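hey
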């Protein structure tokens, strides 16, 4: 339902009825209501669209770069501050850092290959050769990898490990690097925005609320028209 259209239509209907049925009060109410509704509708329209001859219209698209800069500044100065990151890391309500998905993706085959090579080059290498060499222990690769991942996950979930990780993340150098990377990500995402997309986002976000400005502009305009007609 388009509140602006309905308000303007009702105000126009009052004008028509007042003129056709020779009702000055209704006519005045309609004219004031239409002027209030149209004025507010035009003000809202001018936020998003450039209107020839009207200085200051199209403010959101024309201030696009300032808009992006303000968002970047807000994100970095209000959300991703050193204090907020530190508070998140040390909060009792914060969940421990879950490294299990990362460990699951790690390729541990080079670790097994390095272990085999170490055995080959050790004093046990000759004995290993007697039992078929590295091919004899090849079936142990998958069990080794599974066991290593399980051990790494268990270690990563321990309180001691998480405390060490948090202490490292809270170091000034790491914190500064983290802020810099977050800032780069935010800036990259903002650079993907276009003036048209920004206009659409803001327009969709506030259309419902600003639509009531047109409605109340028509209502108060009509009441002012009624008062003006009665005191004549």
């Amino acid at each position: 339902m388009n509140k602006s259209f309905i308000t303007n239509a009702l105000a126009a209907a009052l004008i028509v009825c007042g003129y056709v049925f020779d009702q000055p009060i209704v006519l005045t109410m309609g004219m004031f209501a239409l002027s209030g509704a149209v004025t507010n509708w035009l003000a809202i329209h001018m936020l998003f669209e450039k209107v020839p001859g009207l200085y200051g219209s199209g403010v959101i698209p024309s201030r696009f770069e300032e808009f992006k800069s303000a968002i970047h500044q807000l994100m970095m100065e209000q959300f991703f501050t050193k204090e907020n990151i530190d508070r998140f890391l040390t909060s009792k309500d914060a969940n421990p850092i879950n490294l299990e998905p990362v460990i699951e993706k790690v390729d541990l085959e080079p670790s097994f290959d390095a272990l085999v090579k170490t055995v080959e080059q050790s004093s046990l290498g000759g004995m290993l050769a007697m039992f078929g060499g590295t091919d004899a222990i090849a079936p142990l690769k998958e069990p080794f990898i599974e066991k290593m991942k399980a051990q790494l996950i268990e270690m990563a979930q321990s309180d001691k490990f998480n405390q060490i990780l948090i202490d490292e993340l809270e170091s000034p150098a790491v914190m500064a690097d983290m802020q810099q990377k977050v800032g780069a990500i935010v800036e990259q995402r903002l650079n993907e925005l276009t003036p048209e997309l920004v206009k659409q986002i803001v327009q969709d976000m506030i259309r419902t609320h600003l639509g009531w400005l047109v409605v109340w502009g028509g209502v108060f305009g009509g009441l002012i028209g009624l008062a003006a007609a009665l005191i004549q």
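The chain has a mean pLDDT of 80. The chain has twelve helices and no strands.
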